[in-house]
Amino acid sequence: MKMVTKLSIVLGLIATLVLSGCQKHETHEEMPKYAATTPFREDTSILEPYVCQIRAIRHIEVRSLEKGYLTHIFVDEGQWVKKGQPMFKIMPNVYQAELLTAEAEAQNMNIEYLNTKALADKNIVSPNELALAKAKLDKANAQVNLAKTHLGFTDIKAPFDGITDHLAVRIGSLLDEDDLLTELSDIAHLWVYFNVPEAKYLDFIRREKGKTNEKVQLRMANGEIYDHTGVIETIVGDFYNTSGNIQFRALFENPDRVLRHGQTGTILMTVPYPNAMLIPQKATFEIMDKIYLYVVNKEEKVEQRLIQIEAELPHMFIVKTGVNDGERILIEGMRKVSPGDKVMIDLKPPQEVRSELMKLYTE
Fold first, then answer.
1. What does the alpha-carbon distance between residue 189 and residue 249 come to, in Å, rounded to a whole number?
2. How many CB atoms neighbour CB 275 within 10 A?
3. Residues near 294 by Cβ (< 8 Å), separated by ≥ 6?
4. For a Cys staple, 36 with which of 17, 71, 111, 345, CB 3.0–4.6 Å?
5. pLDDT digits (tens, 9 = 90+) for 8-46
6. Residue 10 confidence (pLDDT)
7. Whole-prediction pTM value?
8. Are 182 and 73 in contact (CB under 8 A)?
9. Residue 3 has what pLDDT?
10. Pseudo-torsion of CA 56, 60, 62, 64, nearest 10°?
């Protein structure tokens, strides 16, 4: 009996100590504490990229205007030529002979006209005969001018300053009228075309009030930004029904001839966001292609919010809807909490958070 009593006392003491330890542990368990901040507003802007095509303002095909053998090529592929500079020469012999024939005929008609005029002055021939002689002389002179034109077409010269493309012929080629010789591009100024979706077009028209002189940048294929800024000159008339896009055209200067006709690149258009609401990207998480964040309410409990992102900056989001000014949002511990959890927060000023993020971006 005494043994049972002692055993009961010992078991009771052990149970008391265990319960006491558990109560002590529960009493000292601390609530989790996570960093948080608030959204902030400022005037900002982003660079919207658009794939573009670069075109020379003047890009033409240089073609033969006469038949004959090609006797000379004065330019090379990719060569810069000046206006009036000889490029090709077609054998001129036939056209020189035609010119000599036309000049001889014109000289003959001139003599006939002078003789007829002398007789008309003495009233020996009628005025009609003099007019007929004058018409024959005019026709002969016209034939001379035509022969000179044909002969001139055997010397093919650059119609403007530009750069040549591939040579489509070689010396000795037998040319026909309208045969392609090469192409010539004036690349001193360039048109850059890019397609803009309808929604962005409407934003642009509203923002610029219909004006088309906004400056843009060009990012080249190697990722570098082109040295000269361009200006949006015009917007074409119609939308493409298949894509819902409309084409913009920007003008770029090309004094160093870096850009060429046919190149591609990316237009960077500056889009301002006045008084934009900004939050750190690290405060968000994604579920099924939707973006959420955690807001800590007045009861210090976590609420999950669906937000809409308007634009993206380095380490920051511009928020359209889903969170209000002054609300506290978690910037850490998103994987450790669930909606309804009660938490403690270390509230950091938003500018301090942004400064820390920008340091990471520049490092």
1. 13
2. 8
3. 283, 302, 303, 304, 305, 329, 330, 334, 337, 339
4. 345
5. 554 454 555 444 454 444 444 567 789 999 999 999 999
6. 45
7. 0.73
8. no
9. 47
10. 180
Give the tens place of pLDDT for each residue, 102-148: 999 999 999 998 998 888 888 888 889 889 999 999 999 999 999 99
Cα separations in angstroms, 63 against 125, 169, 174, 186? 51, 11, 13, 17
Q: Which residues contact 179 (CB under 8 A, 6 or more apart)?
A: 63, 64, 168, 169, 173
With tokens 């258009």, the residue in question is 269
End-to-end CA distance of the chain: 79
**Rounded-to-integer distance, Cα 110 and Cα 138, Å:** 9
C-alpha distances (whole Å) from 248 to each of 17, 53, 54 are: 81, 11, 12
Q: How far is CA 192 from CA 51, 136, 224, in A?
A: 10, 55, 17
Query: Which residues pair with residue 291 across a beta bridge?
Result: 286, 307
Alpha helix locations (H) across the chain?
2-28, 93-121, 127-152, 198-208, 350-362
pLDDT digits (tens, 9 = 90+) for 276-306: 999 999 999 999 999 999 999 999 999 999 9
Residue type, 14: I
Taking only the tens place, the pLDDT of each residue in 210-241 is: 677 889 999 999 999 999 999 999 998 899 88
Do 44 and 273 contact (CB within 8 A), yes or no? yes
State the DSSP string of 73-108: E---TT-EE-TT-EEEEE--HHHHHHHHHHHHHHHH
